[in-house]
Write a structure and sequence with these properties.
Shape: flat
Structural class: alpha+beta
Strand content: 5-15%
Low-confidence stretches: 858-867
Oligomer: single chain
Largest sheet: 10 strands, mixed
Strand order of the largest sheet: 15-18-19-17-20-16-14-21-13-22
Number of strands: 22
Helix content: 40-55%
Length: 867
């Protein structure tokens, strides 16, 4: 028996299909196991790189803020900042700022709050609207509008002093610049967003800057201020920073933050322990990257587990096929008294070298993909070591599964089975997976199968993905049984079809196993593709509903457009506080001009486009025509501020501006005003919001909208939905599942080849018989190719049908953005499924033809040796 152990490491080269199955199984196990550390690293680097691409050197660098410095000595502190920058190798020349709060006096808008600001190069980094030339200060256009100041005039600024009489300083106005709120994306002001932009729809706009030179500020500051604020921004070039470099740089920033208040350089800047703050947007970018990883970590772990489960399951099947392939050898060993455990251990030795090859292939493919797809610097030694260790453990478990499958299939001595065992064997095994699928589906529908991330979004747990797998197992088994019965009742006349049909009808449990494996693999792919397609459409619809068009802004609901724009613009009133249905349930009311809405709204290529219903609103009439959201209860009236308003629902479609989980109705605003005058309720309604929707290039139209009489605030674009981390995490999750399903499909085709190889002797004898019947080799190969193609096509149809059916109740509960309307919509990617199924069928036909070619070249001794 020692000779068997000596030959074991290289034995599988005599069985190429089994060898290929072991290699591919190990590769899939390694790929799935390495996914967690590598995907984490990829998401970190991708998130950081996306932020660094839009990050200016000032934002990526170190910012030092001294809250309270004496007004005198500003020039010395600026020289100290320049000296400090030269002493630290990675810091660039600083941009120094001195500022203090002020108010304007002696103008039509006396008491208007502003901020006196001296900043290196500030006037050169704003958009000039008007200039008088010469020295002086620059004021924002919004300040000029309320104060009626013009270039060449004087602006009196002071501070609020409740003790003595305030000092008023008069400064010449040299020019007017466009408000920084309208200059979105200016990298020079990246660290000043909290000072220049509205961060929400409700807060008042922050005070505007009065820009001046450092010399002017140093001259007036001792007269006006007791203390001033100094900011020093030391730039760092973010281009080419890898995630590892960014982490090292952030640690250096942290060290500077700890040492600066107690160092001599910090003292020259005016830093004290309680008045000196340092920060960098790089730290925030790293935190965002960590948040993105935290959002997808449960899903990546889930997908890694799915891939490992598939790999281990196919490992067990490979062990079963290995015993079937070597049936004569196993019977001889059984007669000689070898135990299943010893045979399983020798099988593990036989699979060791192929598994090592699979380990190298899977891990190498994962690292190569990460190196090609992720930003430079993502693959580090630490990341690689973690991935290799996890992959090695997974491959070891896969080898144990192969050995376990072989040991389970090894012959055993046993007496006649117990009557209960015989009765149990007659029961269809498909009952078990079907029952498990129903139980899991009930858990998922009940909410157990969903996890919630820090953003409130739902992500699937393992139970969500196990539903189609176990469902396909049961459905495919029952379908295979029924199909064998049906095809055995009628035989076609043509020899090719006759041979294929007779082989399928005579097949036993091995064919059912192949069908189940192929259906499960394709079902996993179809399930993930359906969820991914549904997510894509859901996210896009949510973006259009929440943002209406390319640009959305908050406006006063009583605003009107006084001068036309060169691009489509529409105004709407959204009332979420005063409207209900007659039964008392809350509802949203959106009112606007249908013609303007039809021009300005955006939508995708979907049949539920709300714009197709807007012409019905233009007809007007009584009751008021209304478009209701899908699922809105039927009604003939709404209650607005206590008044019953008759409406007539003319269709159902998603309504822009509506909120999640609540019905909404879109009505013509002119008709609503008429009803308000007749029924005596307020229009616009109390607490109602006004929305502006504009279609066009956001970079071009946002400044024009900001400068208009509409004065919109909190301007947003479609990107705030498309770039949401929860959407990106879900898309990655389903994309990985599709890859795992495709890999499992490849292994299922290998299982088909193993099945055809397992009946090689019967195939050789059958080929000899059909030759004597006058059927050529081509017809014989075509028959087997047709048989393989039918098996895979049948498995693909069953798997796809079961997966889509399982996805239908789940897609409505796996919502990456539950805070936005509308609800998710099931979208089946038929073209993707048909293309993938056709490719699998074509490959299966080639596998079948190749199996015949291998069988034809085999000799009789080999045919008699194997089963």
């Amino acid at each position: 028996m020692r000779v068997l152990w000596a030959k074991a490491p290289l034995l599988l080269r005599r069985h190429p299909p089994v060898l290929a199955a072991v290699v591919l199984t190990a590769a899939l196990a390694a790929l799935a196991a390495a996914a967690l550390p590598l995907v984490r690293a990829g998401v970190e680097s991708e998130s950081l790189a996306g932020q660094l691409r839009s990050m200016s050197p000032l934002a990526a660098g170190l910012e030092v803020v001294v809250d309270a410095n004496r007004p005198r000595g500003g020039a010395a502190r600026r020289r100290a900042a320049a000296s400090f920058a030269r002493s630290v190798a990675f810091l660039g020349p600083p941009v120094s700022s001195s500022l203090g709060p002020a108010v304007i006096g002696g103008t039509p808008a006396a008491g208007t709050e502003v901020v006196a600001l001296a900043r290196t190069g500030a006037v050169d980094h704003v958009h000039h609207i008007a200039s008088a030339g010469g020295p002086g200060v620059w004021i924002a256009d919004s300040t000029a509008k309320v104060t009626h100041l013009r270039p060449g005039g004087e602006i009196p600024i002071t501070i609020r002093d409740f003790i003595g009489r305030p000092v008023v300083v008069r400064l010449r106005v040299a020019g007017i610049y466009r408000s920084l709120e309208a200059d979105r994306g200016n990298p020079y002001w990246a660290n000043w967003l909290q000072d220049i932009r509205n961060l929400g729809p409700d807060p008042e706009p922050p005070p505007q800057f009065v820009l001046m030179s450092h010399a002017t500020f140093d001259r007036i500051a001792p007269r006006v201020y007791a203390f001033v604020e100094n900011r020093y921004e030391f730039p760092v070039d973010p281009s080419g920073l890898s995630f590892a470099d960014a982490k090292r740089l952030d640690r250096r920033f942290s060290a500077l933050q700890a040492s600066l208040p107690v160092s001599a350089a910090g003292s020259r800047l005016g830093c004290r322990k309680d008045d000196c703050r340092t920060s960098s947007s790089l730290s925030a970018a790293l935190q965002v990257a960590a948040s993105d990883v935290a959002a997808i970590a449960p899903t990546v772990s889930l997908l890694s587990g799915i891939g490992l489960a598939i790999a281990f399951g196919i490992g067990v099947a490979t062990g079963l096929f290995l015993v079937r392939r070597r049936a004569d050898e196993t019977h001889v060993l059984f007669v000689r008294g070898e135990s299943p455990l010893v045979f399983g251990a020798r099988t593990a030795v036989e699979a060791a070298l192929p598994a090592a090859l699979g380990l190298a292939t899977g891990t190498g493919a994962a690292l190569l993909a990460l190196r090609l797809l992720a930003p430079a610097g993502t693959v580090t030694g630490e990341t690689s070591r973690g991935a290799v260790l996890r992959a090695a453990i997974a491959v070891l478990v896969a080898v144990i599964c192969v050995a376990g499958g072989a040991a389970a299939a090894f012959p055993r001595r046993s007496g006649p089975p117990h009557p209960r065992v015989r009765l149990l064997r007659r029961a269809p095994w498909e009952i078990v997976p079907l029952g498990a699928a129903i139980a899991l589906l009930l858990l998922v529908v009940g909410g157990y199968g969903l996890a919630h991330d820090q953003n409130g979004a739902t992500h699937p747990r393992l139970a969500v993905f196990l539903v189609p797998i176990v469902a396909v197992l049961g459905v495919a088994g029952l379908a295979a049984r029924g199909a064998r019965v049906l095809i055995g009742r009628r035989s076609p006349a043509r020899p090719v079809f006759l041979l294929a049909v007779r082989r399928l009808a005579a097949a036993r449990g091995l064919l059912v196993a192949v069908v189940v494996a192929a259906a499960t693999a394709f079902g996993t792919f179809a399930y993930a593709a359906t969820l991914s397609s549904s997510l894509g459409r859901s996210a896009a619809e949510k973006a259009f509903v929440s943002n209406g068009s390319d640009v959305q802004g908050i406006v006063d609901p009583s605003n009107t457009i006084t001068s036309p724009f060169a691009f489509p613009v529409a105004l709407a009133e959204v009332d979420q506080s005063n409207v209900s249905l007659p039964d008392g349930s809350r509802a949203d009311l959106v009112a606007g001009d249908p013609a303007a809405l039809r021009r300005a709204l955006r939508w995708g290529p979907w049949p539920d486009d709300p714009r197709r219903l807007l012409p019905r609103l233009e007809r007007g009439g009584t009751p008021i025509p209304a478009v209701a959201t899908p699922g809105a209860p039927p009604t003939d009236a709404i209650v607005d501020q206590g008044a019953r308003v008759p409406i007539r629902v003319v269709g159902h479609a998603p309504v822009p501006g509506s909120s999640a989980g609540r019905p909404a109705y879109l009505v013509p605003r002119a008709a609503l005003r008429t009803a308000a005058a007749r029924l005596h309720f307020l229009e616009p309604a109390p607490l109602a919001n006004g929305l502006l929707w504009a279609k066009g290039d956001p970079a071009r139209i946002i400044p024009l909208l900001t400068a208009s009489n509409l004065a919109p605030t909190y301007l947003t674009t479609l990107d705030h939905i498309a770039s949401d981390p929860s959407v990106a995490a879900a898309k990655r999750s389903y994309g990985y599942v599709k890859v795992i399903g495709a890999a499992a499909a490849a292994l299922a085709l290998v299982a088909l080849l193993l099945y055809l190889q397992a009946r090689q002797r019967a195939q050789l004898i059958a080929s000899a018989l059909v030759r004597r019947m006058g059927i050529g080799a081509a017809a014989d190969a075509a028959a087997v190719a047709l048989e393989a193609a039918v098996v895979v096509a049948f498995a693909a149809i069953v798997g796809a049908a079961a997966a889509v059916a399982a996805a239908r109740p789940i897609v409505h509960r796996v919502d990456a953005l539950p805070q936005y309307a509308p609800a998710p919509v099931l979208t089946v990617p038929w073209s993707t499924l048909l293309g993938g199924g056709a490719a699998a069928v074509a490959v299966a036909a080639l596998v079948g033809g190749g199996a015949v070619a291998l069988a034809t070249r085999a000799d009789a001794a080999e045919a008699l040796r194997v089963a």
